[in-house]
Amino acid sequence: MAKPFRRHLPDNLIEKLNELHGRDPKSWWHRLVNCRDAKGKPDRRTFFAVRDGYLSVYTNGGSLLKITVEDGAISCQIHEEYVIQRNPDNPYVRLDGADSHRIQTIGSPDKLVEKFEQVRRRVGVFMGGERQNVGDLANRILNVIDIEATAGPSESEGRLAMPVDRTRDAIDLMAVAPDGVIWSFEAKLLANKELRAGENSVPAVVEQIRRYSQRMLVNRKPEILEAYGKVAQAYRRLEGRAFEERREFFDRVKDLRSEPVLVIFGYDRDQQQGQLKSVLRNLWKAGIRECVCMGNCSGITAAHLFTPREK
Known about the structure:
35% of the residues lie in helices and 20% in strands. The longest helix has 17 residues. About 3% of the residues have low confidence.
């Protein structure tokens, strides 16, 4: 039996986070959800995904923190690979133990936020180009309501191994259009072999999108709409710029689109004229009718997502 598609935050988690946000502007949580650059402008380097009873913080395409409440206090879990602090002067350590004292780790949420850019770069080491770009889209485009949308823990949640599991229904992005309809998106680099197929076969991405459409978007529509309604409720209650700036989009949720849109990026002008045209021609023959194409993912906007090119 398929796992339920659930999205919600318990009251005590929301209350604890809001208490920390309001009590101390210098707290790690306040700084994380109100991050600004040197010029004072919003610095969107994180995405806060509401899960089934906890909050997952993504950066650079990877799940950085799992935030819950345990024994009445906020608890933060992070993969051990992300807490090692590198020495910028000399990253090499002697194995005889003489240098073991030099190895330092991040041991608190405050230290994590203090060293956030260093940690963010480390997360990127373990994420592929597709995941990093999907993470960038989620950070920048305020319409995005979910990332790695699946029932149960996401593939990268709490572990580094990322095997391709074709039985999982994990949609890259879910975003709320201006009319309140939730759209889903599957993102691929042009170099991804799943966009191509042999002479008498169908590209793997075609079967993937069909599966997502039927298993998730059609069969589980009421469940998904209820879940994202609860995401909107959580964002409405949580304090901080990261939540406030997305509320107007999430509050519009009223319907779910049944067909995912393919997003292709990661190509130059020459590839656009050659490889991309060939890939699109074969995808359209196989039944893919909508696609968002942009060489550089940083150029994709909400307007591009909701106005895909059509065959």
